[in-house]
Design brief:
2 strands, mainly alpha, about 5% strand, 2 domains, Arc Repressor Mutant, subunit A, about 140 residues, two-stranded antiparallel sheet
Amino acid sequence: MSDGTFADLMTRERERINSERDNIRAQQRELEGKLEAINREFAAIEAYENAKTGRGTRGPSNGGGRTATRARRGSKRAEILAILEDNPHGFTRGELLAKMDLKGNKAGEMSVSNALTALTKAGVVVRRDGKYIGGVG
């Protein structure tokens, strides 16, 4: 086999594998979106039930006899994705914090930072020119 033929074979194989990987990532993003939608539905049902019964959101005790309000895991990610979907130009971290009314809330700011890191690592969000952009392909 000549070097040219082998190089062509490797190029085609790389293209095939890259295409397969891209397809799987697209499927993964679609499934993550569906899962986030289901999580939002559960949160809405819980909020409705709590509103109807006059209860607060269940959460770990804060030691004062009341229950602390705690969001479901992943809800920050879903909220961030929803905000980014509405703006194709993206937002800086500070703009996201302001839009989510979390400026000055250290725990909230950390939660957003962690969610942005996870979304970026998962390839759902990219960072360009200091702005986070969702819905990337």
